[in-house]
Amino acid sequence: xxxxxxxxxxxxxxxxxxxxxxxxxxxxxxxxxxxxxxxxxxxxxxxxxxxxxxxxxxxxxxxxxxxxxxxxxxxxxxxxxxxxxxxxxxxxxxxxxxxxxxxxxxxxxxxxxxxxxxxxxxxxxxxxxxxxxxxxxxxxxxxxxxxxxxxxxxxxxxxxxxxxxxxxxxxxxxxxxxxxxxxxxxxxxxxxxxxxxxxxxxxxxxxxxxxxxxxxxxxxxxxxxxxxxxxxxxxxxxxxxxxxxxxxxxxxxxxxxxxxxxxxxxxxxxxxxxxxxxxxxxxxxxxxxxxxxxxxxxxxxxxxxxxxxxxxxxxxxxxxxxxxxxxxxxxxxxxxxxxxxxxxxxxxxxxxxxxxxxxxxxxxxxxxxxxxxxxxxxxxxxxxxxxxxxxxxxxxxxxxxxxxxxxxxxxxxxxxxxxxxxxxxxxxxxxxxxxxxxxxxxxxxxxxxxxxxxxxxxxxxxxxxxxxxxxxxxxxxxxxxxxxxxxxxxxxxxxxxxxxxxxxxxxxxxxxxxxxxxxxxxxxxx
Length: 526
Description:
Blueprint: E1 25-28, H1 32-44, E2 48-53, E3 68-71, H2 84-94, E4 98-100, H3 110-118, E5 122-123, H4 128-135, H5 137-146, E6 154-156, H6 166-176, E7 180-184, E8 193-196, H7 202-217, E9 222-226, E10 232-240, E11 246-258, E12 261-267, H8 274-290, E13 295-303, E14 309-315, H9 322-329, H10 333-341, E15 358-365, E16 367-368, E17 374-375, E18 378-379, E19 382-384, E20 391-395, E21 402-403, E22 410-418, H11 421-433, E23 436-438, H12 444-452, H13 454-457, H14 477-492, H15 517-520
Parallel strand pairs: 1-2, 1-4, 2-3, 4-5
Antiparallel strand pairs: 6-9, 7-8, 7-9, 10-11, 10-13, 11-12, 12-15, 13-14, 15-22, 16-17, 18-21, 19-23, 20-22
């Protein structure tokens, strides 16, 4: 569906003529690159897009893609992007009749889904019940066991009041076995998670996990799960409509992680053959059916070195890494979300889902790998992104914006598509090398090092691959950073046209080409 399909009475898009829950205006309750992504799709679908922003975001890039912009008064997240009242007030003020939550913020808050629907608006997401069940890791495990979906051996504990948790912990740990993980029931993204190698660390790590879970999610409940070493993180994209159709869109491999945060994602996985893909896809569909799922969701599994897979969790929203699935299937997942929310059946059947080529995504963060990946904040003096065949960049920032501690430090996602995995690795490495970023440090060099490493470019890596690595040290970066800032200033003053003969030559360690920012500022770095 696209803007050319707009037709019918009162500007209703033609594709929505048979919708059971039609809508014409979508408020995107988010910011940054995902807000840009969704607002673009809303426009392409012939719908009206509404953006929200707080007082720190009044010049944010995503506002340029909206038909109307609504201010959320305040600077803190709690009173703006995380405030259900503020978002619903914005929807009423703008006349929006549907809300898309994006990812993060309120996207997996079941209470928010309930309130959107109770307000008479269309919720572009799964039911509140599905969010509640899958958002509680203990309930989700129980639901998967009932649905015959394999789960990692684990055990929940119930600690009341001032009860000492150690006796229950000891029994559960003995049953599960060491090494083990203590995981927050309401958690995700590595928060409220602690590894325990031996019994004497049980209490200390439990206290730390429970405290972190309480701070992050308001719920300190923790359960015990076996730690699988040398496993891969394989997730299956699922989609379901209100007509009983549930399909999977193949897998993504997200095994290259740092502190449980994904770094590089790819599809398909180099570790998954057609038979395993079919088995994991069927299990993911079973998981979605078990909670009467509707819309886009991701069922995450851990895959052992013996090709045995276990349910990990389900993300009841659009994933950050959804573009790699779009590129290998040719489907637009946000368009499909809008269509399903309108009550229409899925536009494709399982047998029609294919795999074309190989896609890979790198997350570009404003952080310094040489200091343990501490955030790097400040104004973006220049940000030029790569382009060319098979290259896509999803971003919510541009030159002149500022990276602050108020928001997530992700700057962009660089995604490539190529005929095969080896070609995709080369294309992504070259795309990353073309980025010009002045003003903040980033993980570009780190991502490139990972891409061309023997372990990644060979059979791929497991989730603990980075655990044994020392933080990279890049002594040339301070020199390059200083020269880059000077080069940006020189270009603004027109001094880049002067001949430069004495600037030190900086060589790209991957290509061997000169990377002198004075000489290459007006073109892409090699």
